[in-house]
Design goal:
Chain A is α+β, with helices and mostly antiparallel strands and 157 residues long. Chain A is built from 6 helices and 5 strands; from the N terminus they run ββαβββααααα. In chain A, strand 3 and strand 4 form a beta hairpin. Chain B has 722 residues and is an alpha+beta fold. The longest helix of chain B is centred in the first third of the chain and has 28 residues. Classes of the chains: A alpha+beta (157), B alpha+beta (722).
């Protein structure tokens, strides 16, 4: 049995140690907000936080997680959509098909945690690993800035 | 009191996918439809169901049932808005439900439930308005009866009926009474004039936003059912390959693998979860007969098609005397354009869930083509179509891929699940998806055009070569002419808006084994590049400004001219630019909308950087301007991705590319700033999901020419500049 702490909850899973965290989350824990897009860390749809750091769960074996705490999109604010990135995403109406957005939001959440005022190039660097085929990039760029602003306490328009 | 529900919480609860409900039914062994639809039906207590599109509950919940697939284009917001406008109900408080498969949700002129061709708003607009207005009239009648007043004296406002004294009744309080009211004749219903609209034409937040930022939205690949298994299929690399033999013994030994079976598309490995299925597939030994692919490559096709392009083809347009005028032209160009095969590369790879029992087949699909999927699944299983139930999920992108000619991912899921006794989710890996075919056709076009003494075009002859799109789909076959011409092969060229006195457009329709399909904007992604490139070449030949040149060619087309001018103005055409920046312009009318784009580009060491795109669009009526802008942004990024690096190449009958490392798509760092202006017109309603894509590739290549003097006639740009 492998022990995983996900969104504050401890789980015991019976899995091949090589099973990527992505499939453990999706298939075993039924946390389907984290998406499969490529399986080779090229698209970022599977991004989750490992002790606050954004990682690609499709290339992270469950055995490598150890005691690190995993946070998924479901753990940002539950169904409330109250996290700064979620609020900014809704304010700027970022999503289209929405499939990549869990990964985008997790990358963005980690970025504003580490950088209170990300510049365009900071955003490009942090978000470049997250693909979107609907072309929401310009809105993501604006929404990351807005999320940082919300997080800093500037809720004004 | 009606506005009491906080908007920030409304959209979230509004997306109830039928999965939970149906899963319960399935567990009980029932294959009954979750609810009946189709015309009027007796209302359940405390509910007013005037139509299959609408339910109003006593608790004031207004549910709109949408038969169009939500793949990002915003139909789950725009279509409910249209109904809400006439119902007089704040769209942000609506609940949206995925429709079952039922003829009432069919496309008005295609006999099928289908989402594509940028037609959702234009084909449902009147029906949705009529349903909203009819329901409103019945609610008003119910209130008038209760108050014993003339209904003409009553008004409605966001879910309430109000009389002259200020008395109010909420819609929820009227559901029982309204359900008993006679349905007014269509002629008796007065629809609002455009200037009376409260919601249509004003930006409206997406109703699926909250579900999609919390990970709660259910895509096909997310469907969970009791006892669900997951399968992957080992597929041949070569198109047309056949199975010689396979050995499943090692695959079956992988822990978690439940079964291995042959299906028409390959060998399915069925397992308790995705990882076991993938490991099982790795352990599988399969031998294919790949002789069908021998000698088929992009290079061999290129050579054949070049030859074809010099021969007469099927005539798509013939105005004046293009040959004579070309021979007499003052100056001429004779050039070849080439566009590659392209994969759609939806972020959500193809997948499908099926549960096949003695009683029937239940499907959960991220699909654009419900009716065909259900019909072809029934045929594949030898089952009465009435025994197939299909639930639509959210689509993680579509772009045409999720309406394939043979419902490939749906039929495959059903055939994998047949005989298993448990529901099975078939997941395609990224490589499966990229290599699975259904590409935007590879195209070679020969362009011969000339200008007269005044520099304006006198002749244009275009011969396009490639596999037709519509002719290979069940629905599109109807559109093929008696001579065998698929109109999608010449659309955007035969009907180009530019005034060219002598125009001839011909097509050679190829039939290579590589499966093709509509790809966002269908023929226009090809013809938009060829025609707009050609116009730029002619302007250049005449020594004229390409924007002014286009203006002169569109002088008889005020809507086109207004769009062209708006894009040029937005871009600051003619104004000073940052050092090294250059502009290129293009315009394409497609799916009833006119779009012009100006790309601001710099080129350094063969590296193209698109800094900014200025886009103007006239779509007749912008129901949700916010989503019109979003779809322009989307179409631009999608088209730019293809223009810069998109290329599927075929070697020995197989696709060379696999994952995003070999089929790169646009990333954040390469995303330009995009400005969009909606040009108002009173034109008929146009589409919006596709028209943003065609102009960007030519606009960028025209800008590259302005920057470097180099004319890109072959996409992708990365290959041309390499």
């Amino acid at each position: 049995m492998i022990s995983l702490k996900v969104n504050g909850v401890q789980h015991q899973i019976d899995a091949d140690p090589e099973m990527p965290l992505l499939w453990a989350l999706r298939d075993l824990l039924k946390l389907t907000g984290t998406k499969y897009g490529c399986g080779i860390a090229q698209c970022g749809a599977c991004t989750v936080h490992l002790d606050g750091q954004p990682i690609r769960s499709c290339m992270t074996p469950v055995s490598a997680v150890g005691t690190a705490e995993i946070r998924t999109i479901e753990g940002l604010s539950g169904k409330a959509a109250t996290h700064a990135v979620q609020r900014a995403w809704l304010e700027l109406d970022v999503v289209q098909c929405g499939y990549c957005q869990s990964g985008q939001l997790m990358s963005a959440a980690a970025l504003i945690e580490q950088n209170a005022s990300p510049s365009d190039s900071d955003i490009d660097a942090a978000m470049n690993g997250n693909l979107c085929r609907c072309g929401t990039y310009p809105r993501i760029r604006a929404a990351v800035k807005r999320a940082a602003e919300i997080k800093r306490g500037g809720d004004g328009a | 009191m009606s506005g009491a529900e906080p908007i920030a919480h409304s959209g979230r609860r509004h997306f109830l996918i039928g999965v939970g409900v149906v899963a319960g039914g399935l567990a009980a062994g029932s294959l009954l439809r979750p609810y009946l639809v189709g015309g009027r039906e007796p209302s359940a207590p405390k509910e007013f169901k005037p139509h299959a599109f609408l339910r109003i509950s006593a608790d004031d919940t207004v549910t709109v049932i949408i038969g169009k697939s939500e793949m990002g284009q915003g139909v789950h917001t725009g279509l409910p808005m249209i109904l809400a406008e006439e119902l007089d109900f704040d769209p942000q408080r609506l609940k949206v439900e995925f429709a079952p498969v039922d003829p009432v949700f069919n496309h008005p002129f295609l006999p099928a439930q289908f989402t594509g061709g940028s037609m959702s708003v234009m084909t449902t607009y009147e029906a949705l308005r009529n349903v909203g207005a009819t329901a409103r009239a019945m609610l008003v009648s119910a209130a008038a009866a209760r108050w014993e007043v003339d209904p003409e004296t009553l008004i409605t406002d966001d879910g309430r009926v109000i009389d002259v004294t200020g008395r109010e009744l909420r819609y929820g309080e009227l559901v029982d009474a309204a359900a008993g009211m006679p349905v007014p004749a269509k002629e008796a219903i007065r629809l609002k004039d455009r200037n009376e609209f409260r919601y249509i034409g004003k930006p409206q937040k997406r109703l699926d936003g909250p579900a999609k930022v919390t990970g709660q939205a259910i895509f096909g690949i997310d469907v969970q059912l009791p006892d669900l298994l997951t399968a992957v299929v080992a597929r041949p690399r070569v198109f047309g390959a056949t199975l010689k033999s396979f050995d499943a013994s090692r695959a079956k030994a992988v822990p978690g693998v439940v079964a291995v079976k042959e299906v028409p598309s390959g060998i399915a490995v069925i397992a308790e979860h995705t990882w076991a299925a993938l490991k099982g597939r790795e352990a599988l030994l399969v031998e294919w007969d790949e002789s069908a692919g021998r000698g088929i490559s992009t290079q061999s096709l290129r050579e054949q098609w070049r030859e074809l392009s010099e021969k007469p083809g099927l005539v798509g347009k013939n105005t004046g005397d293009a040959e004579g005028a070309f021979a007499a032209a003052r100056r001429r160009i004779e050039v070849e354009y080439e566009l590659p095969y392209l994969a759609h590369a939806c972020m959500e790879p193809m997948n499908g869930v099926a549960h096949v029992t003695d009683g029937g087949c239940e499907l959960w699909l991220p699909t654009q083509s419900q009716s065909q999927d259900a019909r072809l699944v029934a045929a594949a299983l030898g089952m009465d179509p009435g025994r197939v139930i299909l639930h639509t999920t959210f689509l993680g992108g579509g772009f045409g891929r999720r309406a394939s000619a043979n419902s490939d991912f749906a039929v495959e899921a059903a055939l994998v699940a047949r005989g298993v006794g448990r529901p099975v989710k078939v997941v395609w890996t990224r490589e499966d998806d990229t290599r699975g075919g259904f590409y935007r056709p590879f195209n070679i076009s020969r362009v011969r055009a000339g200008i007269g003494a005044d520099g304006m075009p006198t002749a244009c002859a275009i011969t396009l070569v490639g596999k037709p799109v519509l002719a290979n789909t069940a629905m599109g076959k109807l559109a093929v002419t008696p001579e065998g011409l698929d109109p999608s092969s010449v659309e955007g060229a035969a009907d180009m808006p530019y005034a060219i006195p002598n125009l001839r457009v011909e097509s050679h329709q190829t039939n290579e084994v590589i499966p093709n399909l509509w790809w966002r904007s269908v023929g226009h992604s090809i013809t938009g590049f060829v025609v707009n490139g050609m116009i730029d070449e002619l302007a250049n030949l005449a020594g004229k400004d390409p924007y002014a040149y286009r203006r002169a060619l569109l002088v008889e087309k005020p809507r086109h001219l207004a769009v062209l001018d708006a894009a040029a103005e937005l871009a600051g055409w003619g104004q000073p630019l940052p050092a090294g920046h250059h502009l290129g312009i293009a315009l394409q009318e497609s799916f009833g909308s006119i779009v012009a784009q100006v790309a601001e580009v710099s080129v350094r060491d063969r590296e193209v950087r698109v800094h900014r795109v200025s886009c103007a669009v006239d779509c007749g009526l912008a129901v949700n301007p916010n989503q019109v802008v979003a779809q322009m942004e989307s179409g631009i990024i999608y088209g730019l991705s293809a223009a810069l690096t998109g290329e599927i190449t075929i070697k020995d009958g197989a696709t060379v590319q696999g994952n995003f490392d070999s089929y790169p798509v646009l990333r954040m760092t390469a995303a330009p700033k995009i400005d969009v202006r909606i040009v108002s017109s009173n034109g008929p309603i146009g589409g919006i999901g596709e028209p943003g894509t065609p102009p960007i590739a030519p606009a960028v290549c025209n800008a590259i020419h302005a920057a470097t003097g180099r004319r890109i006639r072959k996409l992708p740009i990365s290959a041309s500049l390499a």
